[in-house]
Amino acid sequence: MKPGSIYLDNCVSSPMAPEVLDAMLPYFSEKFWFPGSFISTGESTNDALAGFSQIVAKSMGATPEEIHFTSGGTLANNIAIKGLAASLKRGHVIVSVVDYPDLLTNAAWLEKQGFEVSYLSADSKARIDLDQLKAELRPDTVLFMTTAVNHVVGTIQPLKEIHDILAGAGHKIYFHVDAGQAYGKMPLDVNDYGIDTMSVSAHKIHGPQGIGALYLRKGTKLGQIIHGVKRVDGLQTGGLSIALIAGFAKAVELGFADLDGSIKQLRELSDYLLARLKEKIEYIELNGAEGMGRAPHNINISIDYIEGEAITMMLDMHGITVATGSACASQGLKANYVLMAIGKNHVQSHGSMKFTINRYNTKAELDFAVEKLAEITAELRKRSPLYNAFKKQET
Asked: What contacts 90, CB < 8 A, 6 or more positions away?
């Protein structure tokens, strides 16, 4: 099988929908113009961008003026967090130990700028501790950041409860959400959750790589962190690909035409996958929340007594792409920080596998992946001293 024939690592990137490529092609050729005034080419692009902004805004309950296109989710996070820091100057910030690296690295940067940062713990399912959040609130708390869907185990954070806690603080606390794994996988209305800034990315929802957006609530002031000529947006100055924005809008249009149906399809596939894994492989454990408490596309399991990196490479030889732990934290064979934070040990962390599904995956693909995984697991356990010692004790 060729590499990626069965692609189950969609938390990193998803295959681009054919309709997205079709929507992009005119902007790579005859409609390559940047926005402008008084001339037909520039005005045409202005009109197109207004339409694209409307599509993205509608998907999250925002207005077009609150949508700022960026070159990706990471840059959207940086513009929001560093922009708020530049505007606020100082204060107290809260984040959690299980958040996405974008938020944690920015939290470390904030500390270097003189902000105080508190790090919330999480329970065994990777839900942040709401009682600790209440206890950490101070008169100088200015920002709370969270990852809507955990990037490793798929747990959905309680955004409404978080908003209620922040709103009850008696003063303004900005609420920033990284929605990279949540957008298109759950309803996300920025007004329902009282979100001030939120990052999303196109390539996680069958759009093109290299484009994302920042939602910025009207009236929220950010300091400028990128300086230069404004072509498309005043927050990310310089050029942005109009073609990629067109593709992003088409991906949103497709994914949100029947969001409930899309979520149902993904959940049926992931539930099927989990049932097949439990049926075919002994001594596995689901990491993260169960059922409706997790995103519909994510199944993260620990397979006892074997190494996840070895499984990943062996599945790749069969054309099956999966991840071990977090794709953002697997370098150097380090134990995954999220799994360790929720109480897993080094063996469980190293033996973790993350399957993330897209709408083009089929049950036949999942059956094949489970079949090969079962074969690989059996072979690796034959060579595992830990497994052999366990079996001797069992008998």
From this structure: 114, 115, 140
Which residue out of 97, 165, 169, 328 is catalytically annotated?
328
Q: What confidence tens digit (pLDDT) does each residue in 209-245 have? A: 999 999 999 999 999 998 998 888 989 988 899 999 9
- Stronger pLDDT, 206 or 304, i.e. the higher one: 206
Q: What is the architecture, at CATH level 2, of domain 18-256? A: 3-Layer(aba) Sandwich (3.40)
| Tokens standing for residue 255 | 């994914």
pTM: 0.94
d(CA 60, CA 189): 5
Distance, CA of 350 to CA of 333 (rounded, Å) = 8
Residues 304-315: tens digit of each pLDDT:
888 778 889 999
| Active-site annotation holds for 11 | no
Domain ranges of the chain: 6-14+258-394, 18-256
CATH number for 6-14+258-394: choose from 3.40.50.300, 3.90.1150.10, 3.40.350.10, 3.10.20.70. 3.90.1150.10
Residue labelled with tokens 């989710």: 73
Cα separation of 222 and 227, whole Å?
Answer: 13
